[in-house]
Specification:
Elements: E1 3-8, E2 11-12, H1 19-37, E3 41-49, H2 53-61, H3 66-78, H4 80-83, E4 90-93, H5 97-112, E5 116-126, E6 131-132, E7 152-161, H6 167-175, E8 180-182, H7 184-194, E9 202-203, E10 205-207, E11 216-217, E12 220-225, H8 227-231, H9 234-237, H10 246-251, E13 256-260, H11 264-277, E14 285-289, E15 292-294, H12 309-316, H13 318-328, E16 335-337, H14 339-369, H15 381-398, H16 402-423, H17 425-431, H18 436-454, H19 459-468
Parallel strand pairs: 1-3, 1-13, 2-3, 3-4, 8-14, 13-14, 15-16
Antiparallel strand pairs: 5-6, 5-7, 7-9, 10-12, 11-12
Helix pairs in contact: 7-11, 12-13, 13-16, 14-16, 14-18, 15-16, 15-18, 16-18, 18-19
Length: 505
């Protein structure tokens, strides 16, 4: 049995969950569920980033104790497990004592390597990014490109990390795919950032009199860790790095970090340098997704176009939201959330596609075969076509193209629907043809395959289909062999999986 450890970036708790983070945790969930179906020993981590200037200032503005403020907001993110039907095995909070101790341990490892030193620094500090922004990265107006806001000029004495010392090793790890970055365009982007000049040393702490809310620097209680040195270590502290537990030894190195494109330089630069400094094995890969726009525009409270994932789940169901985000947002690129497009995809692919196929096949099995699975048919041309789709599906998930995975699930639906239209089982039944059982067995077996393809993507729907087929999803795996539907077992037509939406599109 192989192991598979997948993480998301941890969400900053100065607000409520947004659709972009929902996409990220759903993407990670698909990978986790897929690897469990493969039989891998899987661990899926997500969580919240609870320190830094933004948190401290927002709590102060709202007149709340900082810990109470992060407790309240962290719960909104923890609740996503139920809201979005996530299967994460743990949820890390960086305000927890175990995380703080682990973060302090890696700090001391880096200090002992001679890679932490004290110096004064003056630079452009963006509160939104929690980062000093080099002059060359500001836009023409001198604003941070991510937040469209002028950074503050800060001058203070901090601890620094000798990131420059590891620049060549980081570059080599990325170039050779020892650290694989997906997609290729993001790999090229970070290599361009490193460039010929290499990475520069980075500020790694803040004076406590400026920021009292953070993890104490272990060898200087007048300073707290800068948010990135604290937050990035969550990937190891959550699985027992402080005490080097069996869990840590089993799951590290991480197989996949899933992150947004705006934090690539921190994960592929600073984080990798930290691990090298502390002599910890590197993660195997970083998968990078893009941003979601709303109705073709950048989401903003001012424009009033921020998409609340919870509202959509409440109104249309969790699987409709999961499917749209996976199907319509290119997995490693930017995409748009449009209400009209959401309704269109729901009706065409979920209601008329998946829902209609399941309804047709179970109804015909009840009508023509008293709801009993007929005798197993040998593999033939039809089943070969199903296996081709399965192979392509596996490839698409392994290549982190989850949009393609959804399309392939729909390819199977369309393949089965075409088979129904070509073979016309209602005419075969009327004329007493002897191949009715073969046609219906092929279709029932197609639904069994479809259940497996849908389990990582829209698990609730997959389980409902499995129940109609008399299958237990706990017994299913990606090691599919034709002939799994057992002769004589009962099939029952269930409720409509996706009733058509009559809203104006």
């Amino acid at each position: 049995m192989e192991k598979f450890y997948v993480t998301t970036a941890i969400a900053y708790v100065n607000g409520s969950p947004h659709i972009g983070f929902s996409l990220e945790v759903i993407q990670a969930d698909v990978l986790a569920r897929y690897h469990r179906l493969k039989g891998d020993d899987t661990f899926y981590l997500t969580g919240t980033d609870e320190h830094g200037v933004k948190i401290f200032e927002t709590a102060k503005e709202e007149g709340e104790d900082t810990q109470a403020f992060v407790d309240k907001n962290a719960k909104k993110f923890e609740d996503l497990k139920e809201v979005l039907n996530l299967s994460n095995d743990d949820f890390i909070r960086t305000s927890s004592l175990s995380h703080k101790r682990g973060a302090q341990k890696i700090w001391m490892k880096m200090f002992e390597s001679g890679d932490i030193y004290k110096d004064s620094y003056k630079g452009n500090y963006c509160v939104g990014c929690e980062a000093f922004i080099p002059e060359k990265d500001l836009d023409e107006e001198g604003n941070c490109p991510n937040h469209n806001k002028k950074p503050e000029i800060l001058e203070e004495e901090n601890y620094f990390f000798k990131l420059s010392k590891y620049s060549d090793r980081i570059k080599e790890a990325i170039k050779t795919d020892k650290l694989k970055i997906v997609p290729e365009s993001r790999k090229n982007e970070i290599l361009n950032i490193i460039g010929d000049d290499g990475l520069h040393d980075v500020s790694f702490s803040r004076p406590k009199n400026v920021l009292p809310w953070g993890v104490d620097v272990p060898n200087d209680d007048s300073q707290v860790m800068y948010v990135w040195s604290d937050a990035l270590s969550n990937y190891i502290t959550a699985i027992g790095y402080e005490e080097e537990t069996e869990q840590f030894k089993k799951y590290w190195p991480c197989d996949v970090h899933i992150i947004g494109k705006d934090i690539l330089r921190f994960h592929a630069g600073i984080w990798i340098g930290m691990l090298m400094s502390a002599d910890i094995e590197l993660p195997k890969s970083i998968y990078v997704h893009g941003f979601i726009t709303s109705e073709g525009q950048k989401m903003s409270k001012t424009l009033g176009n921020v998409v609340d994932p919870l509202e959509y789940v409440e109104k249309y169901g969790v699987d409709a939201v999961r499917y749209y985000l996976l199907r319509e947002i290119p997995t490693t690129d930017d995409g748009d959330f449009s209400h009209d497009r959401f309704l269109s995809v729901y009706n065409s692919e979920l209601a008329n596609g998946i829902g209609n196929l399941v309804n047709r096949v179970t109804m015909m099995t009840e009508r023509y075969l008293d709801g009993k699975v007929p005798a197993v048919t040998e593999m033939g041309e039809y089943s070969t076509g199903v296996d081709v789709i399965l192979d392509q599906y596996n490839k698409s998930v392994d290549e982190f193209d989850l949009k393609r995975s959804c399309e392939l699930a729909m390819d199977l639906v369309n393949y089965a629907n075409k088979y129904i239209d070509d073979e016309k089982p209602w005419i075969v039944a009327k004329e007493g043809g002897n191949n009715l059982s073969e046609i219906l067995y092929n279709l029932l077996e197609s639904l069994r395959y479809l259940v497996v393809l849908l389990l990582p993507l829209i698990p609730d729907t997959a389980k409902k289909i499995a129940a109609q087929l008399g299958l237990d999803t706990a017994d299913l795996s990606l090691d599919l062999k034709w002939g799994g539907m057992k002769e004589g077992s009962l099939v029952e037509k269930g409720e409509l999986l996706f009733p058509r939406l009559e809203e104006q599109v």
